[in-house]
């Protein structure tokens, strides 16, 4: 009888242990959260985490900083290439690095100056660089690699003084013989360019290709061009 009772007790214990593992495994089923991303005030990106699928907490303001004033808790470190705090992957590309460095030089370096974002725009040499220092946010804009604040008014284009009878100087970026590229900036006197193109016997185009007609590769950007120019004898 003792052996039978012992077997019964062991059986009950074994069933209990198995039931415990089954219930535990059911509770620990894999929970998949959405891929949404939340951008914190310091530029840090946080994601949803299981099991509640709530967003991770943003780094607290005034977190741990290094000797250069870079917020380590947000992934920033001093990047010698741009002379400011930045995340390495944000300024890894050569063009982004050049843009960030130009923006830092424009505002002037000081301890804690941070490049939080480098946005690449759709025109050649065009970027918006987000900077932060002393909890103040600034956006510096590059257009054709020239820097100016985003909110700065566009330069006024002087009207051509036709009554004087003087020709307005025309700037040419590339001359391919039967095609001329004046440039990619739209803030120019298009009347003078149109007249110059007509004088050459060509057709003026406000959104032409900046490359030669038979070029295998070309940047996708609008350029002011004069096309179909007759070949010189």
Question: What would you say this structure looks like, in words?
Answer:
The protein is of the alpha+beta class and 233 residues long. Helices cover 21% and strands 25% of the residues. It contains three helices and 13 strands. The strands form three sheets. The protein has a six-stranded mixed beta sheet, with helices on one face. Strands 10-11-13-12 form a four-stranded antiparallel beta sheet. The protein is elongated, with a radius of gyration of 32 Å. About 3% of the residues have low confidence.
Brief synopsis:
With 233 residues, this protein is α+β, with helices and mostly antiparallel strands. It is 21% helix and 25% strand.
Please list the strands of the largest sheet in the order they lie side by side.
4-5-6-7-8-9
Structural class: alpha+beta
Which geometry do the CA atoms define? elongated
- Order of H and E elements: HEEEEEHEEEEEEHEE
Helix content: 10-25%
Taking Cα atoms only, what radius of gyration do you get, to the nearest Å?
32 Å
Number of helices: 3
Largest sheet: 6 strands, mixed
Number of strands: 13
Distance between the termini: 121 Å
Mean pLDDT equals: 77
Strand content: 25-35%
Catalogue the unreliable spans. 151-157
């Amino acid at each position: 009888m003792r052996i039978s009772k012992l077997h019964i007790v062991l059986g009950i214990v074994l069933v209990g242990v198995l039931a415990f593992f089954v219930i535990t495994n059911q509770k620990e089923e894999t929970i998949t959260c959405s891929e949404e991303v939340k951008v914190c005030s310091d530029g840090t990106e946080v994601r949803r985490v299981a099991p509640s699928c709530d967003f991770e907490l943003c780094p607290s303001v005034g977190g741990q900083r290094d000797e250069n004033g870079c917020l380590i808790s947000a992934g920033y470190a001093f990047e010698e290439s741009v002379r400011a705090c930045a995340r390495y992957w944000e300024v890894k590309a050569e063009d982004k690095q050049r843009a960030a460095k130009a923006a830092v030089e424009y505002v002037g370096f000081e301890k804690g100056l941070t490049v939080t974002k480098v946005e690449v725009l759709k025109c050649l040499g065009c970027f918006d660089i987000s900077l932060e220092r002393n909890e103040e946010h600034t956006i510096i804009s590059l257009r054709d690699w020239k820097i100016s604040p985003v909110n700065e008014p566009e330069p006024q284009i002087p009207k051509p003084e036709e009554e004087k009878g003087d020709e307005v100087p025309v700037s040419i970026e590339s001359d391919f013989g039967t095609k001329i590229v004046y440039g990619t900036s739209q803030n120019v006197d298009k009347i003078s360019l149109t007249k110059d193109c007509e004088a050459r016997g060509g057709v003026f185009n406000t959104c032409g290709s900046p490359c030669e007609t038979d070029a295998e590769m070309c940047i996708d950007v609008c350029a002011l061009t004069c096309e179909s120019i007759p070949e010189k004898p």
